[in-house]
Amino acid sequence: MTFKKNVSGLKDHKLIKKKGVIVSPFNYMLSEKMQLNSWSIERMPEYLWLGLILMYYGRERGFEKAGNILFEISKKITSMQFPKLSMILSLPDNDQKNVYEIIINRINKIVLAPLTILYKNNSYPLFNQFFYDSQLTVEMRLDILSKAVKIYYQPQSNEATDLRFLALSLLLFSGKLIVPEKLSKTFEEYPYTNHKDEKMRQYRPTIRATEGSGFLIDDNVAFCKIFWRDIGMITSCNPIIFKFHKNKDKFVELINGSQKILEYVLFSNKEKSLSDDKFNVIIGSINYALKIFVEIVKNSLGDKILGRHGLRTIIEIYIILKYLLEKESEKPGIWEDYKIYGIGKYKLILLKAREANLDKSSHLIHPIIDALVNEIKWEEFTDVDLKYFDKQNIREKSIEVGEKELYDLYYDYDSNFSHGLWGAIRESTMLHCNKPTHMYHSIPDINLIQQLPDVKTDSSIIIKKLLLILKNNYEFPKSLLQQLDDET
Questions:
Q1: E strand or H helix at 253
Q2: Domain limits, the chain
Q3: N or C: fewer beta carbons within 10 Å in the chain?
Q4: pLDDT, tens digit, for every residue of 431-483?
Q5: Alpha-carbon distance 152 to 140, whole Å?
Q6: DSSP 310-349
Q7: C-alpha dihedral over 138, 144, 148, 149, to 10 degrees?
């Protein structure tokens, strides 16, 4: 199920097991035949001069003036297929003059004057000869261009569709674009039909699909890159900071209650704490998860990147404990195996550390690692298992214990932050610039202003689940923790 229209659900995607890739329906159908192109980035800058006409005169008069201009150009400059500014600017001088005279006879030169801030006199003298207007200051020209870019940037907008219609006009006027009879009404009526008219719900997609057709696209990528570079360099960023509410539940009370429970269970099971591997693993793991939760709460890490690292670990501990409990009947020694597996990982680090030249201030303290590796048994009797514990990764374990949704929605999401993948970097560290002239790019949050949605509530839910595991294996009075609900 998807809550967004016009997008495919997970079940619609295709899993290519050999490649380890989940392929979208579009990519699966079209494969390598599909070439993506962007209206906003690769074509809109070319037609912005027509957009300025629509902007200045309004839709009805703008269409009339732009239509007449393009009709005349189609008759005089037959070599032009598209009304692209790069094509006009690269015409021989006589052809350029003809085009500019056609334009200037139909509109006030002030309409295209804002473009002279990008296409300056030293490089485009003819263009400036016709359209430079000293009445417009640099700020005024830049402001008009910025508004135009914002209006025509979104490819699905009504205004962008109007501009895309004009982009097809030269082909229509020259007869090089033959419209099927069933679509002829669309192209005939479009410029004279109000966007509120119900017919436009059919007309607009047809215009966009036609303009975006691969066989009609002849992009001058270099020209558009220069456009975005030049306009981007003379406009400032406008970063957006998202605000989120911090969770304010009674987390300290949960921590205090959890500590009392662990204390009660520890003293009630002192004999088990001496030699019982199961007891050691359960109470040690839950205490570790609780310690992470305490750090999240007391150090205000709930809306920070490290909060997500912590939640991911708490979830993994929960899934591992459920897995160990489920497997203990068929593998009685699984608790000891789990401890040895972890010590084996430490042993590998120890062996490498002995060969390394560690800095004295390193957080890896050689003697401590040595002591821990040899705590259960002499290291010479300990092997290093390079595979996943019990040969199943955490995803497979989550499925085995009925927690796949928890894995899919939270563990996998927070793993992006642990591994520093781009989605997590983009969400937490890169700010959205709300400037169309910057192509809505992202910029680094150098001042560390952006926070994230708080993980404390999600973390507390898993802590309660862990305490429920403890309660199901070692008794303690429920009064010690009122928040612990049997239905958690």
A1: helix 251-268
A2: 39-235, 251-480
A3: N
A4: 999 999 999 999 999 999 999 999 999 999 999 999 999 999 998 887 876 65
A5: 19
A6: HHHHHHHHHHHHHHHHHHTTT-TTHHHHHHHHHHHHHHHH
A7: 30
